């Protein structure tokens, strides 16, 4: 019998979770924005101007000359010891390097945390709205995601108490992004942080704190991390994507001993270890306090671009009943369209006028507010931002008139 | 109320799967082997002599000079297009670059495949014995792993038919490593490959073919991959870890359209994308046919080291009733101890004599043969191999005499 005589299609039966996994809305939009001439206010791509290319070139030469074979060999799943030490030293509370787990971007941290803490149908709490990548990372473990009501400072503690659940249905953790949140750009105040950590400790609710943007403040640093206030009750996630470069895929977890060993085992199973070459490059670039000199230049750039966007919004949206916030740092701001208008309906009109954004609906675990949208002020230049906001205002007028 | 007044320990409730996740036996053994002076025949670490450090240094300079901002930016989850093309061109059957998904090492490929194809309690078939890292990658999805009886050529097709299951319990796939298998070093013959692909097609059983070692043949290339014989029924996994360097964590999947989109979504959720810098480095190093010149030097080295191990085994194990195989390539050979002897009992005796190996039991999904052990001939020098095998023989005598 010849293979040609056999049924040609093998029946690939998918796991249940595959039905829940869908293409990232953002990545689909980003494909649209690759059209030449379009101004993208959609993606969360750091400005390439901020990438220290020369420093990475120097570090590449140094690492390969001094430590080439080790940099190219298999390595410990925990991560490169000097980088773990540098991270512990850099963080603003007492962190032991043994608590630091290097991850392949902070997206992997979300995957590992989901694997270790979420069963199918486990309750997990998120902000309203929340980071889309977190929802995507949690989805394969098939949890029940519950959105906690939030205001301009983040989660509302009373609603957290109402939604934490009990017994087997008690939430496994709350995922929270306190600084210059993706997507809203909002920051959790000192008072809200104190209340949240207090409530979580009373409730016995672990917190998963994601802090990719915390160093990108404009005028004053944000309040201390949640984890600094109760390290045994929190997992902290950090990233080098916004202060050095995302293309190296370097993030980290700081976890208490109660969960670190299982996260480490999940890491081994996921990709053995994060590339040792990349870890050494970042450790080399960080030597001599480079971040202390480099990060302020990113802050200055992003603050200017944010102000350009705010100025353009004030100018272009006059009379349109559009609302937006004023972030204290980060990469994004949050816009609310006039009553009755949907950001999803607006997007094609905007793309016709050569500007793109992300409809806010993508960031809600449930009950999306269709009027919201996210604007990034870091990828485009100030001139592009001004033109892009003008085009967005025109698109809103198009939709109102249609 | 002060935080200090609260219960200090947050109750971290783990997912069910966490109870099944355990430290890698091999990584624990590797820690023992870091003791100074020990000869490790345990780990699967490629010889650092084979790492093209100078080529990576040149490629690092070129990539950052010519394409620095793009190399350091976020990138497509599918992978870097020129690398996907180079992989498609390199493989010995007709592969479309659109079928290639770049992964963060081939370990991540296993994680993605498990996520997309395995539910809890799904039947999944493996060889006897099989790659430990695959068992670890599958475990978080809580499948039922069923070992198919195997001989010196790999899985026995009759036992595959007996164990494939029916209805909801039908196996989701067979995971198979046909070339110079980890851990045994065995190779699947042409006849067995043909019979296996035929049987899988008849049974409607997908195959997951892992081929990290296929280029490391000593005298003649292995038979064509299983996937080349039925691309729509197979997922193929490859790696640059053994032909260039493992520390870059670069592997890939070739998948049919029936599963590619879901693997891609799982990849997005897992780490967004594999480091773009690393992908460009490998694409740059591969230009001009570098692998065609480089890989033969690895083959020559490993063949000589394998022969050194075989010679030492013949000399040192004389009269000890120890059996071993003669691999046609790869990194490992497989040893069977005298009747009644356990490799796990032998390990501490061997470590006392400054040599380490991996007990075979680690590689069995069930019904381990306690007499087996894996030896790597690639990490140590020929002199260390000779001394290591002598020490191993002495340890066997120690255990026989005790």
TrEMBL record, chains A, B:
Gene3D superfamilies: Aspartate Aminotransferase, domain 1, Type I PLP-dependent aspartate aminotransferase-like (Major domain)
Pfam families in alphabetical order: Aminotran_1_2
Keyword Transferase appears in the UniProt entry: yes
Coiled coil spans: none
Keyword vocabulary terms for this entry: Aminotransferase, Pyridoxal phosphate, Transferase
InterPro entries assigned: Aminotransferase_I/II_large (IPR004839), Class-I_PLP-dep_aminotransf (IPR050859), PyrdxlP-dep_Trfase (IPR015424), PyrdxlP-dep_Trfase_major (IPR015421), PyrdxlP-dep_Trfase_small (IPR015422)
Lineage: Bacteria, Pseudomonadati, Pseudomonadota, Betaproteobacteria, Burkholderiales
Organism whose genome encodes this protein: Acidovorax lacteus
Stated name of the protein: PLP-dependent aminotransferase family protein
Required co-factors: pyridoxal 5'-phosphate
GO molecular function, one term: transaminase activity
């Amino acid at each position: 019998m010849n293979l040609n005589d056999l049924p040609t299609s093998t029946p690939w039966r998918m796991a249940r979770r595959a039905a829940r996994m869908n293409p990232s809305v953002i990545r689909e939009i980003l494909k649209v924005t690759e059209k030449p001439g379009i101004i993208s206010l959609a993606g969360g791509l750091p400005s390439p101007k901020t990438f220290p290319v020369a420093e990475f070139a120097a570090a590449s030469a140094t690492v390969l000359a001094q430590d080439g074979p080790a940099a190219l060999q298999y390595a410990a799943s925990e991560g490169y010891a000097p980088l773990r030490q540098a991270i512990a030293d850099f963080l603003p509370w007492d962190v032991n390097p043994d608590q630091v787990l290097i991850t392949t971007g902070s997206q992997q941290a979300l995957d590992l945390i989901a694997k270790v803490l979420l069963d199918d149908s486990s309750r997990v709490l998120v902000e309203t709205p929340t980071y889309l990548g977190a929802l995507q990372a949690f989805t394969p473990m098939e949890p029940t995601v519950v959105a906690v009501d939030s205001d301009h400072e983040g989660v509302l503690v009373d609603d957290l108490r109402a939604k934490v659940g009990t017994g087997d249905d008690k939430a496994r953790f709350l995922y929270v992004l306190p600084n210059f949140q993706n997507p809203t750009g909002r920051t959790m105040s000192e008072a809200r942080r104190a209340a949240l950590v207090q409530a979580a400790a009373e409730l016995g609710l672990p917190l998963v704190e994601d802090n990719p943007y915390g160093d990108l403040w404009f005028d004053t640093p944000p309040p201390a991390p949640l984890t600094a206030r109760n390290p045994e009750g929190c997992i902290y996630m950090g990233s080098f994507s916004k202060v050095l470069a995302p293309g190296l895929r370097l993030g980290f977890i700081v976890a208490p001993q109660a969960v670190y060993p299982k996260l480490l085992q999940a890491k081994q199973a996921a990709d053995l270890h994060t590339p040792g070459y990349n870890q050494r490059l970042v450790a080399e670039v960080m030597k001599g306090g480079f971040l202390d000199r480099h990060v302020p230049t990113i802050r200055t750039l992003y603050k200017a671009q944010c102000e350009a966007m705010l100025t353009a919004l004030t100018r272009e949206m006059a009379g349109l009943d559009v609302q937006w916030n004023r972030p204290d740092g980060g990469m994004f701001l949050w816009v609310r369209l006039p009553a009755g208008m949907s950001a999803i309906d607006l997007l094609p009109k905007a793309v016709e006028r050569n500007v793109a954004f992300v409809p806010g609906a993508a960031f809600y675990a449930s009950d999306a507010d269709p009027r919201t949208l996210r604007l990034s002020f870091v990828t485009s230049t100030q001139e592009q931002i001004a033109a892009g906001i003008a085009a967005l205002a025109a698109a809103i007028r198009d939709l109102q008139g249609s």
